[in-house]
Amino acid sequence: MANLMLTKIDRRTFLRRTAAAAGTLSAGGLFLGLSTTAAAKTDATFAPNAFLHIATNGDTTLWCGRCEMGQGISTSLPSAVADELEADWSRVTILQGDADEKYGPQATGGSRSINIMLEPMRQAGAAGREMLIAAAAATWGVPAAECEARNHFVHHKASDRQLGYGELAATAAEQPVPETPKLKSREEFRYIGKSLQRHDQGAVVVGERVYGADTVVPGMKYGAVAHVPVLGGAVKSVDTSGLGDLADRVQVVTIDRLERPYGSLGAVGVVADNTWIAQQALDRLEIEWDRGPNAVYNTDTYKAELVERVAAPGASVYERGNVDEALESAAVSHAATYVGGHLSHSPMEPMASCVDVGEDHCEVWASTQDPVGIQNTLAAFLGREKEDITVHVMAAGGAFGRKYQCDYVHEAAALSQAAGAPVQLTWSREEDTRTGFYHSCSAQHIAGSIDDDGNVSGWLHRAAFPTIASLFDPTNTGPGESEMGDVIRQPLAIENFRAEVGAAPAHTRIGWWRAVYNIFFGFAINVFVDELARKASQDPVDVFRKMYGNYRGEEEERAQRALAVLNKAAEMGGWGREVPEGHGLGIAVHYSFSSYTAMMVHVEVDGDNIKVHRVDCAVDCGLVLTPDIATAQMEGAVIMGIGLALNTEIKFEDGAVVNSNFHDYPVARISNTPEEINVEFIGQENTSTGLGEPGVPTFAPALINAIYDASGKRYRSLPIRGSA
Fold first, then answer.
1. Burial annotation 104-118 (CB, 10 A radius, 16+ → b, else e)
2. Taking burial as the number of CB atoms within 10 A of a residue's CB, which of 96, 171, 459, 571 is the most buried?
3. Within the chain, how many helices (H) and strands (E) appear?
């Protein structure tokens, strides 16, 4: 539980700190700053700040310190403040906070925003409510116990008098801040756990939502870039003789590689008065690249090497029991190898930012998941203090982990510095596809056994994949115990278990992709259980039930919660029901990001044509803050899962990405969308946990298992289009 500290801030400090984010606010009113510090099992500490302002006319402004990228966090978190505050949602305006330590760690990822911030935000709203009640009581000269807050008013229960929040704002600001504000019971919630329209929904529908690519500032120029195609390469030469009539209208800038994890690969940029001219000029340049040591990288060859490595014993990173003996003595044993390719984030909005670098300032407008990371990177690049760099967090048109890095902002800063003017840089789709931080390709070998009682008795899990750690240490040669944690932490009743790793040096930039390693771990684990169960002539769901239901130990609660979502998904989808010829059912369950998801898929297979008819999703992510938004997260996970399962893979030849756009990196289309996606949330008595990522790992294995049920064909490589 976070420790709560509320402080009142005077008007001058408030205006100084928030003018950029807030725009125009009514003078006076009640302003609260929230500071929390939560001890974690790691060395990480949290001191986020959320702010509330009630103007004298009653208009209420809430700030969101986490980054909005379509997941709805800018609605969900402020709604918790509004609920405890007893605010009228129609009177609430929500603003995005800039990069500022007052908001605490603003890096938005790992499905942690609600888990970390829900309770502190509730406490902030509750404190504001109690101060407003105290102000009304003081005005009326009655005990505070005789007063209650309801929908933007404080009521005196005995006399039926009422005062609006705006009327009380000035007096409330003078009240002492409650140390332990009383939170509502769940029965009293008005917004938490209820359907609630997104605060920006109308703007999104009519195209008025301002994203990073929409940024326009006075005196702005436009940039276009072509990147070094191979990690570790460089710009060798640039021939500008082909610019022709554009020579006097553009500025050509060479952007050196920034030796930081999130800095640019190196690029050639063009600055012009509009995007069209910048792009046309870039196309006329003759650029020669030094492709560097990774020019030999070929993904087909590399994946074959990974398969060879996991076929042989690797380095043991975790072990319990005697796996070898369990496999040798088992009634049934089985082994299989699973392979996955690189994935691109490919958000609807490519990388976009606008940067204004001046002698005494640096101001950034960026679609980003990590505004403080931008400050750190630009501080190193420009040789300035991080506090001197202002970062405005713009709405991101999708991100999925890609906009955690800030190479595109570094490039815009380099162009702005060279041009002496603000520069808006929006990558082309081709550059976005070819210059990414890609999800790891992988190979996994699993050997397992079932004993005479029908229990999984042994499990060897061997994996090789380039890791995200290679960003920070290029000499990193593959996974270790920490990277295998999402396998080791699965609450499975397997007495004999060993995790091994094989070498896998990185030849491109590896980054966080929605659900990260759980994508290929969830795929391999769930498909293997289905294979093992069928070889033992058992129902796969029954085997899963034993694996989770028989678990005893410190993590038994987790095992039972995983079992509950499995049973729920099986119930929702009617596991075991009769389906037409050529149709099949498959199921998968996985624990990740402190949440539990299970999916059951109904598929039709006609030769190479695969049609997903129905998906049933059961989720335990604790208390669901905003059900509509949570449901959309799971529906999005299904659609993303369809893409990675069927079609999407980034391939490299001669060190460079082969793909260029959606014609050769085909994400899921409307035609691929299931006719029916059902989502149910259970376990809401538990603390809120992650949701953005946990839904993704279960779709692909459930689909693969359903395809086998329909056709008898088993896929062990993703994507299945073009796999053996």
1. bbbbbbbbbbbbbbb
2. 459
3. 17, 30
**What's the confidence (pLDDT) of residue 652?**
98
Beta bridge partners of 3: 37
Query: Tokens 């389906």 label which residue?
Result: 579
Closest-CA residue to 635 (of 574, 695, 572) = 695
- The full DSSP string for 64-89 is E-SPPSSS-HHHHHHHHHHHHHT--G
Nearest 5 degrees, angle CA 661-CA 664-CA 670? 85
Residue 611, pLDDT score: 97
Q: What are phi and psi of 609, to 5 degrees?
A: -85, 125
Question: Which residues are bridge partners to 332 per DSSP?
Answer: 450
532: left (phi over 0), alpha (psi -120 to 50) or beta: alpha
CA dist list (Å): 472 to 259, 260, 331, 468, 496: 10, 8, 46, 8, 34
With the C-alpha atoms ordered 579, 525, 519, 114, is the resulting torsion angle positive or negative? positive
The distance of Cα 652 from the centroid of its chain, to the nearest Å, equals 25
The β-bridge partners of 227 are 267
Print the SS3 string covering 296-322.
HCCHHHHHHHHHHHHHCCCEEEEEECC
Which amino acid, one-letter code, is at 459?
A: W
Q: What is the pLDDT of residues 58-87, one digit of tens each?
A: 999 998 988 999 999 999 999 999 999 999
Helix axes 518-535, 540-549, angle to 10 degrees: 110
Q: Are 339 and 523 in contact (CB under 8 A)?
A: no
Q: Which residues contact 339 (CB under 8 A, 6 or more apart)?
A: 303, 306, 307, 441, 442, 443, 444, 716, 717, 718, 723
C-alpha–C-alpha distance, residues 551 and 555, integer Å: 8
pLDDT at 107: 81
What pLDDT does 5 receive?
30
What local confidence, expressed as pLDDT, does residue 1 receive? 27
134: its two tokens:
């105290």
Given a contact cutoff of 8 angstroms between Cβ atoms, the answer to whether 103 and 144 are in contact is: no
User: What is residue 706's three-state secondary structure?
Assistant: helix
Sequence-separated (6 or more) residues with CB below 8 Å from residue 296: 507, 654, 655
Q: Is 204 helix (H, G, I), strand (E, B) or coil?
A: helix
Residues in the chain, pLDDT under 70: 1-51, 103-104, 722-724
Whether the Cβ atoms of residue 272 and residue 419 lie closer than 8 Å to each other: no
- Is 683:561 a contact under the CB 8 Å cutoff? yes
**In contact, 71 and 651? CB cutoff 8 Å:** no
31: its two tokens:
């302003």
CB contact at 8 A, 499 and 483? no
Domains of the chain listed by start with CATH number: 3-205 (3.30.365.10), 218-293+346-434 (3.30.365.10), 299-344+438-718 (3.30.365.10)
- 248-285 confidence digits (pLDDT tens): 999 999 999 998 788 899 999 999 999 999 999 999 99
